[in-house]
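The protein record reproduced below.
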Amino acid sequence: MYIILLILPKNYSMNYLNSKIEPVFRFYLARGFDHSLQKVADAVHITKKTLFNRYISKENLEFCIVNYWQKKSNDRIDQRVEFTNNSVEKLMMFLFELQYCKNFEPHFFQKTKELFLNKKESNYPHIDKLEEIFNSGEAENLFQFEAELKLFAYFFLFNTMFVLLSDSVIKTEYIHFLLTPILTEKGKKMFKDIDIEQIFKP
């Protein structure tokens, strides 16, 4: 077993076929993560050996599932931002998506929080999406950052998840607290034009 693990690609945990992982994803979406590989295999009508050959371990399978879920979440964000006017509005759509995830996909929301706390995985599509929004906001002169952009993206995501763990709705005071330090004067004007209470209403 150790020899097999040594020759695997470095980012093996993120190598999967969407067609193969979709049934497993739907099982976890409905029933959560507290299941044996045998139970997962039975639920998706494959053998435990096949499941193990695809993912090597339960931990690796969970990494793949969370990664796959975040990519699907990013697809929803892309759909929402299609009709936005600027990166401040895009950031609101990102936050709205996290609120949606917490309320309608709680198993994945909780598992991602655990991975964050345990620093088990560094590849998060949500982080990539945040960086994309932050970069476009800098180009539009709406955002400014004193810290490294990726580090702030981790700070932003972790703190938003922490806030949502105790509430189903992101409070407007929190959004002001989080955004005010990074908004330029132009960004603040854009932010004032957004009815955030309407977006994040209960």
